[in-house]
Specification:
The protein is α+β, with helices and mostly antiparallel strands. It contains four helices and eight strands. The protein starts with a helix and ends with a helix.
């Protein structure tokens, strides 16, 4: 556990640490990444999980628009840059261990590349996986084909 966040376990509400110090001490994985969960800020709906590196996290904080790290493309991924379905940052939190980022966002339209509102539409029921929601926008409309 990072020293900075370990220290906050005994903090009272309102006590602070410098952000740069905390970011320096986060337990980034071997690829320099942490998992990031996005949640609709006003409903609590969990939208998706992606990865962030320090650069994407800092850009997100600076711009107020969520930016992730694309592991497949090995580059910054500004949510909605192709689809227009952006995530505006309302709040960023770190869990107690500093190994997971929670992004409370205002999501425009679908969060999922399938055109669904969220990425968690595969529901396990007994020995079956059931799709529990339809796309709200055809992915071809989002990505041009």
């Amino acid at each position: 556990m990072p020293n900075g966040l370990k220290q906050t376990e005994k903090f009272s509400p309102g006590q602070t640490l410098p952000l740069a110090r905390v970011l320096d001490e986060l337990p980034w994985n071997n690829d320099g990444l942490l998992p990031a969960i996005s949640q609709q800020y006003d409903t609590g709906e969990v939208l998706m999980m992606a990865w962030m590196n320090r650069e994407s996290l800092e850009e997100t904080l600076d711009a107020g628009r969520v930016c992730y790290w694309s592991r497949s493309r090995k580059q910054l991924w500004r949510k909605g840059e192709l689809s227009g379905q952006v995530q505006l940052l309302k709040e960023l939190r770190l869990d107690c261990d500093g190994d997971t980022i929670l992004l409370k966002v205002d999501q425009t339209g679908p969060a999922c590349h399938t055109g669904r509102r969220n990425c968690f539409y595969n529901l396990v029921q007994g020995d079956r996986v059931v799709v529990d929601s339809a796309p709200i926008i055809d992915p071809a409309e989002l990505y041009g084909g």
